[in-house]
Design goal:
7-stranded parallel sheet; alpha/beta; 15% strand; binds NADP nicotinamide-adenine-dinucleotide phosphate
Length: 242
């Protein structure tokens, strides 16, 4: 059984990635922070389709919570390892910089960037030993071009892109790839409060993307077909200029 851990797998893009990777034959480990009901629904949908899934709640922004959950998984699966990691969990908390509070800055950096370090370092050793691994980081258009009102979120996602490129070079010789996807506007809970009618006028495709479209890209990047793609940032934004 090949195991794939998706952080923030209970809703939105992470949920779609869980369903896609289960469909690809992975045993899916669904991480979430608090929304247990939504995570259980994802598990049930995977099982209904004949796939395999388990829940692994932890707070990606808290290194102790990450360590405890991963240690618990590893001791209950002594003969297995997680070969695919999708660092997807994320939040936004927008404010123009003059009004941004310490907690808004810190919380967004911790959840979108520190989380990558906390989770990835704990899974790397087994990937290196097994000489196989796929890591996909969910970045954002905001981390490439910057977006007004998102200095915290743009910094976190740009940092994630830098770390993606560095780690890809660090472990590329071990048959492990590390790539990032950079979605534009995707219709999920995270973008519910945005003025979609206004924003979609800027998007050549004329619409927000779907979580399933992002999941299809992640599915390709973790497949054997993508073995020679490493350290890349792949935009998925309907043609929105980056
Ligand atoms: P979403 O619908 O709000 O879902 C967020 C997911 O992350 C939920 O499963 C949530 O778990 C989980 N999560 C949040 N904080 C967490 C924490 N501290 N520990 C563990 N899990 C946590 O968001 P989304 O739109 O699918 O976004 C997914 C990723 O795509 C994020 O990294 C986001 O920055 C990125 N992205 C999104 C868009 C977009 O337009 N939607 C565009 C570019 C990039 P609970 O259910 O337990 O709360």
């Amino acid at each position: 059984m090949k195991y794939a851990l998706i952080t923030g797998g209970s809703r939105g893009i992470g949920r779609a990635v869980c369903l896609a990777l289960a469909n690809d034959g992975f045993s899916v480990i669904i991480n979430y922070r608090s929304n247990e009901g939504a995570a259980i629904e994802v598990k049930q949908e995977i099982e209904k389709n004949g796939g395999s899934a388990e829940l692994l709640p932890f707070d990606v922004s808290d290194s102790k919570s990450v360590d405890a959950a991963i240690q618990q998984w590893q001791s209950s699966h002594p003969d297995d390892y997680i070969s695919v990691l999708v660092n997807n969990a994320g939040i936004r908390d927008d404010a123009v910089m003059v009004f941004m509070q310490d907690e808004q800055w810190n919380k967004v950096l911790r959840t979108n960037l520190d989380s990558f370090f906390y989770v990835t370092r704990r899974l790397l050793k087994a990937m290196i030993t097994n000489r196989h691994g796929r890591i996909v980081n969910v970045a954002s258009l905001s981390g490439i071009k910057g977006l007004a009102g998102q200095t915290n979120y743009s910094a976190a996602k740009a940092g994630l892109i830098g770390s993606t490129k560095a780690l890809a070079q660090e472990i590329g010789s071990r048959k492990i790839t590390v790539n990032a996807v950079a979605p534009g506007f995707i219709a999920t809970d995270m973008t519910q409060d945005l003025p979609e009618a206004e924003l979609k006028k800027m998007i050549p495709a004329g619409r927000f993307g779907t979580a399933e479209e992002v999941a299809d890209l992640v599915s390709f990047l973790v497949s054997d077909k993508a073995a020679y793609i490493n350290g890349e940032v792949i935009s998925i934004n309907g043609g929105l200029y980056t």
